[in-house]
Amino acid sequence: MLLAVVLRFCLLQWTALPGLLADRVEISAPVASSKRLNEGLFLHANGINPYDGGVFNQAPILLAMLSLFRQLPAARLMENLFYSISDVLTSWMVLQLASSNYIKQQTPPDLQVSQQAISIISALNPFSILVCVAKSSALFSSLAVMAALTQIVEGQVGSGAFLLAVATHLSLYPCLLLPPLFLLVKDLSSRKSSPWKFLTVFVGSLMTILIFSFLYTGSWRFLTASMSMLFLFTDLTPNVGLWWYFFTEIFEDFRRFFLGVFQLHLVIYVAPMCIKLRRDPLFAAVTLSGIIAIFKPYPSIADSAFYMTLLPLFPQIYKHTRNLFVIAVALLYCCIFGPAFHYLWIYQGSGNANFFYAITLVWNLSQGLLLTDIVFAWLREEWEQLNPQHRGKQCEITQVAD
């Protein structure tokens, strides 16, 4: 873990990568851009409401937190160290999850992944490193969600609910994880009141954070600025998601209808995942995180890095997967050609928006195939646990004639 902190800090402090990566649309989404955050910090420091200009749309809690670092001696060094430690803390919490009793009970002893392997996979994840070096504020949302998962698995219901509220305040869509985490609390707690305590603390914490944000900024402008951007998709900046090209081409008369369709499409997965994956709510939460990474309005590789980092916690399902090699090659293909297609479109002018959107379609299709594969593998593992006489046997789906 120390090596991971040193690596990130050196890249932040002594290279030109932060400035270069901050401009990459794959890494810095408009709602998590370090440049927009710096603009908000500058306006706030000069007594101007940062939400009045329409450029800054991030949470006030980030303003309050990072403004403190700007007042310290050696501010840049301290800020870079803060980003490095925050990102590696996420990896450390993955390690805590892996060593928890919940994961050990879900995983057969002969299939448990070593803590050293999990530590290396999470701490040296190239996507996570890129997000950290770009200073994307998405890493704080990932940290809050990971901390919430860790606290809930360890039985700390109140702190888990508070951290989920913080994550919701930072990027909204972690609230979709509330149902599977509610079920997880219900499974882990011996008290019947604990799930409702979790829900109550979540709502109370979220309201408290909103009131603090109002007192800190002096208006409710932060709420309309951030929510309107997510719900109305006002910024059509290209990203690795599916929304931007569609809403660039759509007729204005149909915009509101399809905004509702796209937002609803995110929500409809919650109930089926919670019902079908009821025996393992944590896996349901990880799967929903992957769905959010595909279908949210402003995704980045930070969202993909988050749920991919958690997949090694379920080693028992990998023997049932079918397409991991093809998916890995497709994702690698996107990582290589995505920046190239964006360069041809924006800088060379020898391509058009279709170039970049095509590669983002492949990227999201690959993630969809990955989620489909691991959900199938989980369901197959569950079926074999319920039918041990068929474990290891080749099974086929057949149609029974009348």
UniProtKB/TrEMBL annotation:
Locations listed in the record: Endoplasmic reticulum membrane
Main location: endoplasmic reticulum
Transmembrane annotation, as ranges: 124-149, 161-184, 196-216, 222-245, 323-343, 355-379
Membrane topology: Multi-pass membrane protein
Pfam families: PIG-U
Assigned protein family: Belongs to the PIGU family.
Name by which UniProt lists this protein: CDC91 cell division cycle 91-like protein
Organism: Protomyces lactucae-debilis
